[in-house]
Amino acid sequence: MANIQFKDGKHEVEEVKIVSVNYNPDTLEQNKYVDGKFQRTETVNLDENILFNHCETIWDIEDKYEAFWNRLNKLESGWKPQAIVKVLKVSRTEETE
């Protein structure tokens, strides 16, 4: 379990819910996800996903998640993302939407 700082204090959690949206990087219009919705909620297991190993706060989780989706390759490679992902909320899995 990870000891993560949330807005209401530190909590021992194994998983978090991440709510995100994504935008077209050229037009800045909001895209729909493949399920037709504008928001996506993903449950991430912090113990099993090494991307989040050193996260101490919900802001760390937000930064890692956005960097993973928005910066898959080095800038000098010329790679450009098809979408810009923005995290709206990181919460404990037992919290309600």
In short:
The protein is mainly beta and 97 residues long. Helix content is 13%, strand content 37%. It has 1 helix and 6 strands; from the N terminus they run E-E-E-E-E-H-E.
Jot down its keywords.
6 strands; mainly beta; two-stranded antiparallel ribbon; 37% strand; 97 residues; four-stranded antiparallel beta sheet
Query: Which overall shape is indicated by the principal axes computed on the Cα atoms?
Result: globular
Q: Which strand-content bin applies to the residues?
A: 35-45%
Mean pLDDT: 93
Number of strands: 6
Order of helices and strands: EEEEEHE
Quickly count the helices: 1
Low-confidence stretches: none
Q: C-alpha Rg, in Å?
A: 14 Å
Helix content: 10-25%
Largest sheet: 4 strands, antiparallel
Judged by helices, strands and strand pairing, the structural class is: mainly beta
How far is the N terminus from the C terminus? Answer: 22 Å
Overview of the structural elements:
This protein has one helix and six strands. The longest helix has 13 residues, at 58-70. Helix content is 13%, strand content 37%. The strands form two sheets. Strands 3, 4, 5 and 6 form a four-stranded antiparallel sheet that branches. Strand 1 and strand 2 (9-13) form a beta hairpin. With 97 residues, the protein is mainly β. The protein has one helix at 58-70, and strands spanning 2-6, 9-13, 15-23, 30-31, 40-45, 84-92. The mean pLDDT is 93. The two termini are 22 Å apart.
